[in-house]
Design brief:
This protein is mainly alpha-helical. The protein is built from seven helices and two strands; from the N terminus they run αααααββαα. It has a single domain, classed as Arc Repressor Mutant, subunit A. A hairpin with a 7-residue loop joins β1 (111-115) and β2 (123-127). The protein is elongated, with a radius of gyration of 19 Å.
Amino acid sequence: MSASDLARRRSVARKRNPAKTPKTIDYQRIDFDVFSTLLSFYVRSTNLLVSQDLDHHTESLGIAGGTGKISTILLVASNPGLRPSVLAHFIRKDRSAMAKLLWQMEHAGFLEQRVSPAERRARELYLTRKGEALAKRLRQVVKAQDDEFFAMLSARERETLLALLRKVYESYIDMAPIPGD
């Protein structure tokens, strides 16, 4: 990618998600100390940026803000009857955060919890019609947002980054699904 292509893509990204740039110091000469060599710094910072951009894209759908809503809708859509504990495991929510998230999603009319016919004490998650319509729209929105946000990467770079992040995720998540299954 040429320097002018990169500059153009950065300009587009800034217009989509303008930063609150400090005006009182020369912020381009800040020493990042050890952070400049830490993957964790860039992963955390990029997570914040992508989350803010995703919130902007999903605001009109009534699902922006907070974490886990999009994952919940799409994972339940693809796995009707998913148990809350399994969902919580894969989206990294503790029990109380998961309960709050499910309460919000139920009260918004997107999903419902049903008693499992196989195990009466267990609950299963299902989307409502409203939730199914939202899932259909969300798939389009999140794919477009992902393509726009990471536009500075070539197709090969995207594949490599996705493979590396998936590898890290799968090494820490017990029983992570195998891609393509």
